[in-house]
Amino acid sequence: MFITKEISIGDYVLSGGELGAAVLCDAVIRLIPGVLGNETSALTDSFQDNLLAPPIYTKPRDYKGHQVPDVLLSGHAANIESWREEQALKRTQERRPDLLKD
Asked: Around Cβ 39, how many Cβ atoms within 10 Å?
């Protein structure tokens, strides 16, 4: 058997190559222009800037005690972007500090 390229999709074992191939296909295909409904949405994906994505909120404003942060409701684009960057860095530090080592 000749292996021309090896790609890891994570630290786990699958029962066959089909699921790994599907994951790899999905990750690559979504980067092709026209595949996503809004092409700019890929720019905010996790790892796009070596950080995990920040939390995402939707309606309602209060769901079972979980509140949408006021800054996200403010309409102030610069403050919202700053919050998103802070949250992405915090989430990465907590969950994947290995991404910040360089």
From this structure: 13
With 0-12 / 13-18 / 19 or more C-beta atoms within 10 angstroms meaning exposed / middle / buried, residue 88 is: buried
Positive or negative CA dihedral for 58, 61, 46, 96? negative
**Structure tokens of 43?**
């720019």
User: Could you give the CA distance from residue 85 to residue 51 in angstroms, rounded to a whole number?
Assistant: 9
| pTM exceeds 0.90, yes or no | no
Reduced DSSP (H G I as helix, E B as strand, rest coil) percent helix, strand, coil of the chain, to 5: 45, 5, 50
Distance CA 19, CA 90 (A): 31
Q: What is the DSSP string of 48-97?
A: TTSSPPPP---SSSEETTEEPPHHHHS--HHHHHHHHHHHHHHHHHHH-G
What's the CATH number for 46-102? 1.10.1270.20
Mean pLDDT of 5-27: 90
